[in-house]
Write a structure and sequence with these properties.
Length: about 210
């Protein structure tokens, strides 16, 4: 099974407002955007060279789906944090064996589901409950099927991930499966799961 770090996921309550905030922090505007009709969400994207950063929010113009939205948007704990502002909520990995990776995932993950946008097709497993798996320590699992990867589409914007650190109670279980991924570090310990990333930008390091 080949598994690699894929991208960062920043959660927000207001995509337009937080896009301006993140553009100011990173020094460059987003280079991509999209909507997820199945999930009732929309996003803005920044290229990080061989990966990317996704800023995502509930789409106020989309009907509420009959299921829980991904990334914990229907979880009261996530909603309370979003009331304080955008934050690095979770991360994503890509894999060539999504069913195999699912066998090691926390309980409550759903089966692989198909997504598509233009020529890009992919599969993900989404938590069946409202919360983030292991509080965000367990990543979104993606199997990219066809089309050019988003990192290649976005190209280089002078941004790059230097490091991602996952700490707290959820980090231990995630570390058992994902230790050895480039630029990803785990710091298991007491307390809630927290993610922190350092990005290299045109104006210097930026912490998220």
């Amino acid at each position: 099974m080949a598994t690699r770090y894929d991208h960062l996921v920043v959660l927000t309550a207001d995509l337009k407002e937080s896009s301006a905030w993140l553009e100011d922090r990173l020094g460059v505007p987003p280079k991509g955007a999209g909507k997820h009709a199945m999930m009732g969400t929309h996003n803005a994207l920044w290229g990080l060279g061989d990966s990317y950063l996704e800023l995502i929010a509930v789409d106020p113009d989309a009907p509420r789906p009959a299921r829980n939205r991904w990334f914990g948007f229907d979880d009261p704990e996530v909603q309370a944090r979003l009331a304080e502002g955008p934050y690095l909520g979770t991360w994503a990995v890509s894999t060539d064996d999504l069913p195999g990776l699912l066998a090691h995932a926390p309980e409550g993950m759903g089966p692989p589901e198909d997504f598509a946008r233009d020529d890009l097709t992919w599969q993900v497993s989404i938590a069946e409950g409202p919360g983030l798996p292991l509080g965000g320590a367990w990543p979104l699992m993606i199997h990219w099927k066809t089309g050019m990867h988003l990192a290649e589409r976005l190209g280089h914007q002078g941004l790059a991930l230097d490091s991602l650190v996952i700490s707290g109670t959820g980090a231990g279980q995630a570390a058992a499966q994902f230790t050895g991924l480039e630029r990803v570090q785990f710091a298991p310990g007491p307390g809630p799961t927290r993610l922190s990333a350092t990005l290299n930008t045109p104006t210097g390091p930026v912490a998220l």
